[in-house]
């Protein structure tokens, strides 16, 4: 089984590739190693992967269609797990073109490569952000999503629509995974947990948006990877190359149990054994105050259930952070 993982030097791509190698898959990873956040951290993740015999890496930008096609021609992947993207809600307000390059142009290049060299399953990252401001809780994949709060969310919604057309026009089996606030060791420095941890250890204030009236469905990385692993192995959702029976699905992967931001900070203070200095600020443009996943689809399809408590997950993150930064 040969699998391509795009965005392999990223947080979720790294963990996914490591799991696939452990399951005995041949894993080809690609990434452009951009400097949206620490390139050193991305290289450190890659170093871990490059120690594994079944892993090989290509420095490729998915906005370059020729490079992608050459890679697909050389390898003939059985499955593709597409995690490369410009992530981050707030950054998308000031840098929309970065999202056009990676999330729209890069995405269509990937679809075209899968069309030219068909694989049995393309699994790609969507996001809980597609649910937008007006969604009711819990967020269900039956909900109509048409009001994105950020440009990032708009590109993720666009990915779902683009993938659907390739499923019904060309019979490409696709699954879009709407991840809910993923956290854990080797996590992203631009996300709240990483920033809070650094600031608390430095004695600096942490920013609490919407004056604390926020909650997030924090989901531990190992649970996310377990969900990705089970879903990539599923047969296509439909068979006919027809618009109403396209082999396409969209699935939530989240804990289904949101935590208030202030409670999250309490847990983190305990895990770090340090108090936080809180600075209360209004809701930021592009942000949504609450998220919560309805995970009945993935449970029915694969038997998946999240198994990591917030206390366990935070302890793992803090242990990794202290050892990685030697503090
Ligand atoms: P990440 O930023 O750590 O990983 C993305 C990787 O893709 C990075 O290593 C980056 O260098 C690479 N990349 C970006 N543009 C590229 C391009 N044009 N060509 C090649 N490589 C490129 O992010 P992550 O947290 O691992 O997220 C993975 C996916 O899951 C993304 O699509 C993200 O939008 C989505 N997602 C993540 C979360 C979360 O909480 N982490 C939540 C919802 C959705």
TrEMBL record:
<dbReference type="Pfam" id="PF01370">
    <property type="entry name" value="Epimerase"/>
</dbReference>
<feature type="domain" description="NAD-dependent epimerase/dehydratase">
    <location>
        <begin position="3"/>
        <end position="238"/>
    </location>
</feature>
<dbReference type="InterPro" id="IPR001509">
    <property type="entry name" value="Epimerase_deHydtase"/>
</dbReference>
<keyword id="KW-0520">NAD</keyword>
<protein>
    <submittedName>
        <fullName>UDP-glucuronate 4-epimerase</fullName>
    </submittedName>
</protein>
<dbReference type="InterPro" id="IPR036291">
    <property type="entry name" value="NAD(P)-bd_dom_sf"/>
</dbReference>
